[in-house]
Amino acid sequence: MMRLFVAIDPDAATRAWLAAAQERLRKKLAPFGRVLRWVDPASIHVTLAFLGEVPDAGPVAEALAGCGCVPMELGVGGLGVFPNTRRPSVLWVGVRDPSGALVRLQARIAEALSPFVKPERRRFEPHLTLARVKAYPPPALGRALAELARPGGEAPQPWHAGPFALLQSTLDSGGSRHTVL
Prior knowledge:
By secondary structure, the chain is of the alpha+beta class.
């Protein structure tokens, strides 16, 4: 079995901005350091679909081959949490998709993968995960996150998104490692 997902990576300038934003947030959220696990900036990506455990990547790759990927310009902006500030589990920066191309691509991918996974009931919320909450968060963390409107600093220039990739995620003690298939 292989743990699979489909994603698009930010460009190098956006990744550097995300790393700097993480550092600023890490300082602001220092009192909650023990409950936050920061994502390695090299692993930050926009998840378009999560398949979970799949026995064979071949049929998935074949299904994705017909999805295509038009060039698109994406940006970042706005800090958020899933599912909410009362019980945050993920701290993220939003992805701006002014043309709607990313949302349309994600819908095509979801349709192509429908034989392999149940459709997601939640609306697609393009984002870049900065940190995960690894323990039941104290209420003060939710209040602190609610006060942070954005991670700070000038947003990077929009990036020209490359093609999406099918990735395998391998979990280990240091987090997850991603391999492009």
